[in-house]
Design brief:
heterotrimer, A alpha+beta (326), B alpha+beta (723), C alpha+beta (213), A: 326 residues, Enolase-like, domain 1, 12 helices, 12 strands, globular, B: 723 residues, alpha+beta, Aldehyde Oxidoreductase, domain 4, 3 domains, seven-stranded mixed β-sheet, 2Fe-2S-bd (chain C), 2Fe-2S (chain C), Beta-grasp_dom_sf (chain C), 2 iron, 2 sulfur cluster binding (chain C)
Chain lengths: 326, 723, 213
């Protein structure tokens, strides 16, 4: 790992000032950043430790449930407000990483984590995300873990988070601070598709800081489920994962929220599927039909073709759990 | 399963061993407190740190190496490449089973040739680990690339490679084809990497120009001493090898690898002790692996299940510069009575690093294919898989006609079947649902030669009544010290708490490497024999022919002695030639498979081992449990993946190379026949380490078939293969 | 944070080839003479800058390890794991992957189990660290250590310190209420020897025993 300067500012102003300089990077939990620095994938000149900022509260506010960006993944997953109002988020968090990593990883850091694509991680391989213009190793290579939606000619990587899949489904918003102002964007607009610039994972501008996320109140708590299909029972990234929340009243689905992980460069929200479910009864047939809608536009490569079958199967299965059929 | 071939009430009602039974490990306290020190943990004064740089191409030559930046980096003491590394006087060659046609183990920093991706091209030595690692990242090489080949061709049935094993036939060639019920199928498993939790590590310290001390991860301190002495042209007694604790190995530390030579070279150059710890990615290319193997089984039987013939072909991957051969076809020669057996085994040379033995080695590979094929045959015959095996049960070794020294595999089948609840198995595959999951049962067995090598042990009784037993064995985890203390305690008639067992030190009396499941048999016999001799010495001192229970403290005192010792050599006798000696196992598995997502959950496991007398119940049980889990990894998730365009691993880490985690594993019942083998050695113990894994992958695959009706012949059985 | 100039060159995402020696020489001779002590300039120009440069790159780290206050000077890039093993000779904490993928390096920081291989030492400043060496009360083993011994929760022993630190946390966190829950919450610790069922048995025994952990 390259040497770097380490600073630990105690105010938001000082943090914003420090990260406005090129070569600076924020460190919070460090679970992904230190990993990437060890591999030489990233080599910042300066680390700005933001752990002294007061951003680790979970409370109810005007916009629903607010979760500070520095709240630990483990803390969020055990928080009584989260468990009560948005169990889907807790389920997704518990499906991610390991207890130790969740004790280090923060909400903001989880959003900022980079793809686990092997070509991105290996500096001896081509990767447009790591080194723009060097090519994509995965496209003609070993792409079993890779995207089937929203890919570009530059990149087919997937976003590895579980938490983000749940937040995308739950209509969360992200609060971001810049040097001059604060802004809020829908969570589903935070991450981006690779397009021509796969080196950019999201819409956070240089010098900006994530303050937290807000989840609006909803009626999904009773009928929520997160299902993660992976190569082993725990401590593995998703082949496909699905977050589902259903608002069922008098036996009819009033509202549905669905997002998928492991299939795209960002958490893949399934708006069309949601619409198709509204007004329907929670039945296996309806869920299977809805799952097929999700697959429109999916495109597989040599090693990830199984996702074309696994993704709809996982959607239907998740809906069955959420809908109380299992 | 038919009734009648067993009727063993007492056998089937034996209590199931629990994890709390038996003596706890004698070195357990050191392990649970963090006091146990592994090779990288003997920090020396003024020690420097070495980091290797691997090639980023697969085949060709080094054109240039730019070391300028690295040499200028802070703390760098030296940087070795083929251009400046001191010559190694000898070559390290330690593979006894080598067919040996090619140039032998990789000679590090020898010339500009690149033989595989990750081939070490440089080593940085610096004053701290962080500085060495950073400087290593600054070394840049350019290459003259040549076309490489890392991908086995699809059709291997015609055979390939530099070395062809002799084809073997008993009876008629390929006679299975004439059988009324027959099948022929191909099976593959990918390369699997041992990945012990402890990274391979060495600390090398030159004590004088002709004297060296190393703390090294090895399965045999004496073998390593010999190899290092040979490589550096030193007297063996001038090389001290320490390996007190070994953090797992499973075969990966059965030989001296290039990084060990490199660290010793580095210490010579910088004139300081040097520590070299491989990184996890290094573990994929620096210390061997279980080779990708393609197998084809042709098998045929009469309508009532009597085997007519087996043809077992195998092609195993090896490197372009060294042949590694093992025994995948052995199991087909001897596991069942078959009048006709044909085997063909070949090696496939690719531009990869050389494989090595991994737990169960070739026999585990072979058992996956043979025991899968047996299962397939049982469905074709509409016969219970256990009945099919009993129908062809070998009472003498079909390979050589010798009587077995001991074999209770039939009892093992019965015990395992009862324990798993085999009677609940439905013969129709894919017919049972439990809570939304497909449920299925499978079984498979295995065998592995039971060996005994020469070993020398020293036993010393001290005036305070404590006994020290010494021999130069290493322990990679099975619990050698605990078993040895129990053997000594029994012979001497003293409390295990009064016995100390010294090992992992090349200055101690000779012991073989810990490999091939032979340690308890070989070393245990030596400990037994040394204690018998020592006890007799005491009995002589007592006069009057002695009594069975000498009062050691009193005898020493009465004779004005501070201690009494013996050094005893123990070796196999004529019986070891006369009989066929094998350890046996059978594994029973119940799986649940999700019909929509293809996720496989291991629901129940029962393993039965016929490994002779159980010396140490607690550690023996853990050996079986651990082997079964290794087999579950082999069956469901382990796979070293190379992007063949680059010849480079794309999952060389613990995040992408999956081994089982706690959530994958249910309680595992480990049962023992626990009957002494009367001929193999004085203690009646056969081997355990290999048979614990051999057959497990087939048992899982067979259970998955029973659950789903899908036969997966290409491991691992990941969810995508079942949807 | 001491007010000092960065001593590493800027280099974007790729590691830079420039060295610290070059940097100090350049800065001292050109722009930063006023900011740099004369001795450093002299040493740098005389190629004797190594130790001084090294000292400049280090930061103070004060932490409590197993109840003992420790005061160190570390490079920001040094992980807690390497500091424990290489500087404090607390080798009970193990390196198995160095990337948070195996759990062998698990320690408690301010009571939480974390992967010390992904924890920068400087970020533990002012915190309390407990390693396997700090779990027993003198000669008296911690109940979890006793249970691991009794149930043979290991073979080779290399993952064991991490397993035990994780197991203690698993109970303290309240995640040891069933076999299934224990398995899930112990899945961040890989055991290649395959002692998982024994580990689960050990944790269940401690949990059922109700001892303070």
């Amino acid at each position: 790992m390259k040497q770097f300067q380490y600073i630990h500012p105690t105010s938001q102003t000082a943090v914003l000032d420090a990260i406005s300089k090129p070569g600076s990077k924020i460190i919070a939990g460090g679970t992904n950043l230190v990993d990437l620095m060890k591999k030489g994938v990233t080599a910042p000149d300066k680390l700005v430790d933001i752990n002294s900022l007061p951003l680790s509260t979970v409370n109810t506010g005007p916009d629903g449930l607010h979760i500070g960006a520095l709240t630990l993944n483990s803390v969020v997953s055990e928080n009584s407000l989260v468990l009560d109002k948005h169990p889907l988020l807790a389920m997704a968090l518990k499906a991610g990483a390991s207890p130790q990593l969740r004790n280090m990883a923060t909400v903001g850091g989880n959003m900022m984590q980079r793809t686990r694509c092997a070509y991105f991680y290996d500096t001896a391989m081509p990767c447009n995300k790591r080194t723009p213009g060097s090519g994509c190793g995965a496209m003609g290579g070993y792409n079993r873990m890779h995207a089937i939606f929203g890919t570009s000619t530059q990149c087919i990587a997937v976003h590895p988070s579980d938490m983000c899949v749940a937040l995308a489904a739950l209509d969360a918003t992200v609060t971001i601070a810049g040097k001059k102002s604060k802004r809020r964007i829908p969570f589903t607009d935070f991450h981006r598709l690779p397009g021509e610039h796969p080196e950019m994972d999201n819409h956070l501008a240089p010098g900006e800081l994530i303050l937290g996320v807000d989840i609006p109140d909803n009626n999904f708590a009773k009928n929520s489920y997160y299902l993660k299909v992976r190569d082993r029972q725990s401590y593995a990234f998703a082949l496909v994962s699905v977050a589902a929340g259903l608002d069922i009243q008098n036996g009819i689905i009033k509202k549905a929220r669905l997002a998928m992980g492991g299939v795209a460069h960002k958490p893949w929200r399934l708006f069309e599927v949601e619409k198709s479910l509204e007004g329907k009864t929670p039945s296996e047939d309806n869920f299977k039909a809805a799952a097929q809608i999700a697959m429109q536009g999916a495109k597989a490569r040599e090693f990830n073709a199984f996702k074309l079958k696994l993704a709809p199967a996982t959607i239907a299965e998740t809906l069955k759990h959420a809908g109380g059929l299992v | 399963m038919q009734e009648g071939w067993y009727n063993m009430e007492t056998l089937l009602n034996k209590p199931i061993p629990t994890s709390a039974d038996g003596l706890s490990r004698v070195d357990g306290r050191a392990k649970v407190t963090g006091a146990a020190k592994y090779s990288a943990e003997y920090n020396q004064p003024n020690m420097a740190y070495a980091v290797l740089v691997g090639s980023t191409i697969t085949k060709g030559t080094i054109a240039t190496i730019d070391t300028k930046a690295a040499l200028k980096a802070p703390g760098v003491l030296t940087l070795l490449t083929y251009l400046n590394a001191p010559k190694v006087p000898g070559h390290v060659a330690t593979k006894p089973q080598k067919p040996g046609a090619k140039s032998g183990p990789l000679k590090i920093f020898y010339d500009n040739k690149i033989l595989y991706n990750g081939h070490p091209i440089a080593m940085v030595v610096a004053d701290t680990f962080e500085r060495a690692q950073y400087a290593a990242s600054l070394v840049k090489a350019t290459y003259n690339k040549q076309a490489h080949d890392t991908k086995p061709p699809k059709d291997l049935s015609r055979g390939v490679g530099a070395w062809d094993g002799k084809d073997f036939t008993r009876g008629t060639v390929d006679a299975w084809k004439t059988a009324p019920v027959k099948l022929e199928q191909e099976y593959t498993h990918p390369s699997e990497i041992h990945n012990p939790m402890e990274l391979h590590a060495i600390i090398a310290r030159w004590d004088a120009p002709d004297k060296l001390t190393v703390w090294d991860k090895t399965q045999g301190v004496r073998a390593t001493r010999g190899d290092i002495a040979k490589a550096f042209n030193l007297k063996a007694e001038n090389v001290q090898v320490n390996s007190q604790f070994v953090g797992g190995a499973f075969g990966s530390a059965l030989q001296v690898w290039p990084h060990e030579v490199a660290a010793i070279l580095g210490a010579k150059v910088v004139k300081r002790p040097v520590k070299l710890v491989l990184s996890r990615p290094d573990m994929f290319t620096s210390v061997g692996y279980r080779p990708y193997t393609w197998q084809k089984i042709g098998i045929g039987a009469t309508a009532d299940g009597k085997l007519v013939g087996i043809t077992h072909e195998a092609v195993g991957q090896t490197s372009s510069f060294e042949d590694f051969a093992e025994g995948p076809i052995n199991t087909s020669k001897g596991l069942y009575v078959s009048p006709n057996v044909t085997t063909r085994y070949k090696l496939l040379s690719l531009d990869v690093n050389t494989p090595t033995w991994m737990r169960g080695p070739g026999e585990a590979t072979g058992a996956f294919a043979l025991e899968s094929a047996l299962d397939e045959l049982s469905y074709a015959l509409k016969m219970d898989p256990i009945d099919l095996r009993m129908k062809n049960y070998a009472k003498v070794d079909p390979d050589n006609g010798k009587e077995y020294s001991s074999k209770y595999l039939d009892e093992a089948y019965a015990m395992g079947a009862k324990q798993i609840g085999w009677d609940k198995r439905k013969a129709d595959a894919g017919s049972v649902m439990e809570n939304g999951w497909l449920a299925g049962y499978g079984m498979a067995g295995g065998m592995f030669g039971a060996y005994r090598d020469n070993t020398v042990a020293k036993a010393i009784m001290k005036a305070d009544g404590t006994l020290t037993v010494q021999t130069a064995v290493s322990d990679i985890g099975p619990g050698t010290g605990t078993a040895m203390v129990l053997i000594a305690a029994k012979v001497m008639g003293i409390d295990p708490g009064k016995i100390k067992f010294d090992m992992g030190d090349s200055a101690l009396p000779f012991a073989p490497m810990q490999g091939g499941s032979a340690t308890t048999s070989a070393v245990g016999s030596a400990v037994n024999d040394a204690c018998v001799v020592l006890k007799e010495k005491f009995q002589k001192l007592m006069g009057n022919g002695g009594t069975d229970k000498p009062d050691y403290v009193k005898i020493l005192k009465d004779n004005n002695l501070t201690e009494l010792e013996t050094v005893t050599r123990s070796q196999p006798g004529p019986d070891n030639e006369k009989y066929s000696m094998q350890s046996w196992s059978v594994h029973f598995v119940k799986v649940l498979v999700h019909p929509a997502t293809g996720v496989v959950k291991i629901d129940k496991v029962a393993c039965v081992a016929d490994s002779g007398k159980i010396i140490s119940p607690k550690t023996a049980r853990s050996q079986v449990v651990g082997g079964a889990i290794g087999g579950i990894g082999m069956a469901l998730m382990e796979e070293g993946i190379i992007d063949h365009r680059y010849g480079r691993y794309v999952n060389n880490n613990f995040g992408d190379y999956h081994v089982p985690v706690n959530a994958d594993i249910p309680q595992i019942d480990a049962l023992f026949i626990d009957k002494p083998d009367p001929y193999i050695n004085p203690i009646g113990a056969k081997g355990m380490g290999e048979i614990a894994l051999i057959g497990m992958a087939a048992a899982v695959a067979n259970a998955v078939y029973n659950a789903t009706g899908k036969r997966v012949r290409d491991l691992p059985i990941t969810p995508d293969k079942l949807i | 944070m001491p007010d000092k100039k960065p001593v590493t060159p800027t280099g974007g995402e790729e590691p830079s080839n420039a060295t610290r020696r070059d940097f100090i020489k350049q800065t001292s001779l050109l722009t930063a003479v006023a900011l740099t002590p004369g001795t450093v300039v002299e040493a740098a120009t005389n190629n004797m800058d190594e130790q001084i440069a090294a000292a400049l790159e280090k930061l103070p780290l004060k932490m409590e390890v197993n109840g003992t206050p420790r005061s160190l000077s570390v490079e920001p890039r040094s992980t807690l794991l390497d500091i424990l093993r290489e500087q404090l000779d607390l080798t009970g904490t193990k390196k198995g992957c160095d990337h948070g993928q195996c759990g062998a390096c698990t320690v408690h920081v301010n009571g939480r189990r974390v992967n010390s291989c992904l924890t920068l030492g400087v970020m533990v400043n002012g915190k309390k660290v407990t390693t396997i060496e700090g779990l027993a009360n003198g000669e008296e083993l911690h109940p979890m250590q006793e249970a691991f011994l009794k149930h043979d929760g290991f073979q080779c022993g290399y993952c064991t310190p991490g397993q035990i630190m994780s197991a203690v946390a698993c109970i303290r966190e309240g995640h040891a209420n069933s076999e299934a829950e224990i398995r899930e919450y112990m899945s961040g610790n890989i055991c290649r020897c395959g002692a998982y069922p024994n580990i689960v048995n050990a944790i269940q025994e401690v949990k059922a025993g109700g001892q303070a952990v």
